[in-house]
Design brief:
about 400 residues; 6-stranded mixed β-barrel; elongated
Length: about 400
Amino acid sequence: MKIFNHIQLAYQAMMRNRMRGILTMLGIVIGVAAVIVIGAAGEGAKYSIKATLASMGTNLIMVTPLSNDPGGTRLQSEELQTLTLKDIKAIEERSLYVSAISPSSQSEGQAIHGALNWPTTIEGVNEKFLPIRNWSLKSGTMFTEKDVKTYAKVCVLGQTVVNHLFSKGIDPIGKIIRFGKLPLQVIGVLNIKGQSAFGQDQDDVILSPYTTVQKRVTASVYFGGIYASAKSEALSDAATKEIVDLLRLTHRLRAEESNDFEVLTQVEMLRTLNTVTGLLTILLMGIAGISLLIGGIGIMNIMYVTVKERTREIGLRMSIGARGRDILSQFLIEAVLISVSGGITGIILGQLNALIVEKLMHWPVAALTYPMLISFSFCTLIGIFFGYYPALKASRLDPIEALRYE
């Protein structure tokens, strides 16, 4: 028989048992749809993370304090006292590859204006902070170097803080708010940044001179971090090495001692986040693959039942000249047709579900071709693998015994 005849016979057999065919496909449909949705969501998350990190500045370098206690004691970041103004000055004066640097001193507390209040974070920085982080102002101005030197009680607000402290339509510029007991005059409002790659609301912040925050809020000479900007993205690695060398020198660390600080670049953060999201995607795809495996087992079971039901038909075809390979091809094509039909249905449902996830859950998705190609190929292989043995058994039936089968 020609291949077209086999496909036609397989289609007719499927149509005779529509409900059984649909139930058999169900595992394949669910598995393929899950693979498509998970793949699209995983790639969308990677693109979103990359875009978010790029918006923070591609040449951003961050330094955070660490404990170099050989006992391995874990401390909170605010308890670590390793970064000081001496480190900032050393990098400013000696660095060849750093274009700008800002310390960071943070504290959580209650922001108050009139009868309204909002729990938020105040971050003490210098006047170079905005270009380093690639942030911009919506209105007003940034505080100056003079404000930093004179411990000025001024601040710049993120949009989330503005929304909770001021009624709609009220311009916060020039107004006085309090952070705890500290009065601050609002001189600027930041443009909306949205969530960071770590899910943190970047607009829920108050920026103030670091000298003001250290003296009047944290009462500490130590910084919770340092932000630096390399002169170009290409010089980020050189700037990072330079910062490490300078900090080891100012901290008087011996060659055998480990760093009491950590330096991270955007490239390293992107690589780490991509690794995490990639592993999660692979794990979830593996779980979805179990549905495909179960679907394949279902196909094998149904093909066994089909062979039993059609034993007399097989014997009749053999008696009028059908060869074993014709019977093998017929049932194998039937198994592949069930599997591939389920795969195509799963791809369509997967794409629709990916769009639903994007619209309803506001999760970024990326429509990629390779998950669909992989799913389609895998479905074909499942049909061949799980359909081969029942088809082989059918092809080896004795025609006389088959005709006698009741």
